[in-house]
Amino acid sequence: MFVEERIEKIIQLLNENQKVVVKELSKRFDVTEDCIRKDLKNLERQGIIKRTYGGGVLSRQFAPQNDILYRKKIDVEDKIIIAEKAYKLIKESETIFLDISSINILIAEKIAKGNKKLTVITNMIDIIRTFSKCDNVDVIGTGGAFNKDVNGFVGSTAIESILKHKVNRAFVGSCGVNMFDKSLTTYNVEDGNTKKAIISSGKKVYLVIENKKFYYDATYKFADIYDIDAIIVDKKPDEKICGELEKADIEII
């Protein structure tokens, strides 16, 4: 069994039992206890578990609160994978919404380098700038209260503008996804309310997140998992989460 497969199984056991024991895992996978400790250390670095004496317990940590400048620099390879998947879904002449998200900046860059004729609605300054020299894309900015941390527009004015539109596809980011209580969360209330409006505007709504977001929570719930149609990720989550997504009829891309 490859290391990745073993870690996937450990995560599945954590989701089922909330805890794991080093000695039991060593016997189960026929590897040394030191090998299992390394696996658990890796999972702790990802924020999935808290290590305890002789094992580990499932941990749902709060997502890091970083501004957009920092978020644009981290997990870039994973985000590029997500952006490429999203771009392939977008059809000629569609109208799409790109929410405030570092992944959506990469989607915008893919669109700008392509030749699809599109209309892009967005509440993010970085995305508007991406299309400044792009002749094949019509861009609509929402306006609204400017939030410096996310470099975009949120709040009542932005929401009023968003609700006037219906788009073929809406791409929305999230700080955390909790499949136990089916919540999508963020930190800023106005950002969350704006995301909720964006979701209501989309004929098909995609959540764009890195795999690790399934193990994070933030403080403000802006939607239920049932409010979206599909999740675009860099890699599939563990079997337990995949099973919950299947029950909720959510496509994993």
List the helices and strands and how they pair.
Elements: H1 3-17, E1 19-21, H2 22-29, H3 33-45, E2 49-52, E3 55-58, E4 61-62, H4 68-71, H5 76-89, E5 95-98, H6 102-113, E6 118-122, H7 125-130, E7 137-141, E8 145-147, E9 152-154, H8 156-162, E10 167-172, E11 176-178, E12 183-186, H9 189-201, E13 202-208, E14 216-217, E15 220-224, E16 230-232, H10 239-247, E17 251-252
Parallel strand pairs: 4-14, 5-6, 5-10, 6-7, 10-13, 13-16, 16-17
Antiparallel strand pairs: 1-3, 2-3, 8-9, 11-12, 12-15
Helix pairs in contact: 2-3, 5-6, 8-9
Explain what the structure shows.
The strands form five sheets. A seven-stranded parallel β-sheet has the order 7-6-5-10-13-16-17, with helices on both faces. Strand 6, helix 7 (125-130) and strand 7 (137-141) form a beta-alpha-beta unit. It is built from ten helices and 17 strands. The chain starts with a helix and ends with a strand. The mean pLDDT is 93. It has helices spanning 3-17, 22-29, 33-45, 68-71, 76-89, 102-113, 125-130, 156-162, 189-201, 239-247; strands at 19-21, 49-52, 55-58, 61-62, 95-98, 118-122, 137-141, 145-147, 152-154, 167-172, 176-178, 183-186, 202-208, 216-217, 220-224, 230-232, 251-252. The protein is of the alpha/beta class.
